[in-house]
Write a structure and sequence with these properties.
With 350 residues, this protein is α/β, with parallel strands linked by helices. It is 35% helix and 19% strand. The strands form four sheets. The chain has a seven-stranded parallel sheet, sandwiched between helices. Strands 7-6-8 form a three-stranded antiparallel sheet, with no helix packed on it.
Length: 350
């Protein structure tokens, strides 16, 4: 198989490239090497075929697709964003870029696609209250300022967080989340129109070696590690009790390969979403404490600060991926954190 990995010079894309090469696949990378992601210096592609280009550029995409059997689409602008002025870049990078890629795949007759989606398409995670399952509305500024971080039902009773599955109602609550859902919907339309097969992998909190550092668009694990690299104490927002599923990048890469295999046998016109998580739930405060302990640093600071658009609890049921992709994560939280606490990060972004 000849595989095109868009964003293959990035954190997750690079892990997918490595895993595919080790499995014996031929790999081509299309990456724009954005300075706000990759930092200084060129990408060292070694023996891998590398095309520097933007997924919004149809000529670059068409050239990258020549002779390709399947595509793993990782190129995207990630993170919650700094402010709403980021919106045009998110929409252009994520949605326009995906539309261009899909159009060129249709033109080239390529029918197998794995696309990187995210847990953010759900909004808040799944909850259960006194009257059964519940999906709370977005948290208000007033509640957050008062330190009322956990969602409540309409009667003011606390809701208990549960695992969320792929059939849950989607409720994207920030620009990044909206663009990820739009990417999924564009891919679904492509599959229906072309007879292709697409697996949309809804990543939960991915971490591991090679994460970008010192950028506001990175995940919370990178923000904490970046602080430690600078000799600072990680700052934990809210009360640190936000529940997340931290999944190692090597497991995410293996999920991509399993999903690629699935696209080879899926019925024509199929689009399927899969949660990709470890199944081992931890809080953001536990993550910060684990990293500072392993680094021999002072304990993290719990600030009580918050960001509108953040959700309180979001944890995955990855049962579908286990059953249908025959995929299992292999890196435990303890082992992953022990490695991540000292693993090299990507050069600081500009």
């Amino acid at each position: 198989m000849t595989l095109l990995v868009t964003g293959g010079a990035g954190f997750i894309g690079g892990a997918v490239v490595t895993a595919a090469i080790r499995r014996g696949e031929r790999v081509r990378i299309l990456d724009s090497l954005r300075a706000d992601v990759h930092g200084a210096g060129p990408f060292d592609e070694g023996d891998i075929e590398f095309i520097r280009g933007d997924v919004r550029d149809s000529d670059a995409v068409a050239a990258a697709l020549v002779g390709v059997d399947a595509v793993c689409h990782q190129a995207a602008k990630v993170g919650l964003g700094v402010d709403f002025f980021d919106a045009p870049d998110y929409v252009g990078s994520n949605d326009l870029g995906t539309a261009v890629l899909l159009a060129e795949m249709a033109r080239a007759g390529i029918a197998r696609l794995v696309i990187a989606s995210s847990m953010v398409v759900y909004g808040e995670g799944a909850y259960r209250g006194a009257n059964g399952p519940a999906r709370p509305a977005p948290r208000t500024t007033a509640d957050l300022e008062a330190g009322r971080f956990d969602p409540f039902d309409d009667d003011g009773n606390p809701l208990a967080p549960e695992l969320i599955d792929e059939d849950a109602v989607l409720d994207p609550r920030n620009v990044y989340a909206i663009t990820k859902l739009t990417q999924e919907q564009l891919a679904t339309s492509w599959a229906r129109n072309t007879g292709g097969a697409v697996a949309a992998l809804r990543y939960h909190n991915v971490y591991g070696p090679g994460m970008p550092q010192n950028t506001p668009y990175a995940g919370v694990a990178s923000l904490f590690r970046s602080a430690l690299e600078r000799g600072e104490v990680p700052r934990v927002f809210e009360d640190g009790a936000q529940r997340r599923d931290f999944v190692h990048v090597a497991d995410v890469a293996s999920a991509n390969l399993a999903a690629l295999d699935w696209t080879a046998t899926a019925p024509a016109g199929t689009s399927r979403a899969f949660n990709i998580g470890s199944g081992d739930i931890h809080t953001i405060g536990e993550l910060a404490t684990e990293l500072t302990t392993l680094a021999g640093a002072q304990p993290p600071t719990v600030t009580g600060e918050f960001r509108l658009g953040d959700v309180r609890h979001i944890t995955a049921s990855s049962a579908r991926a286990r059953a249908e992709l025959d995929w299992l994560p292999s890196v435990t939280f303890a082992d992953g954190m022990k490695e991540f606490a000292t693993a090299p990060l990507r050069a600081p972004a500009n």
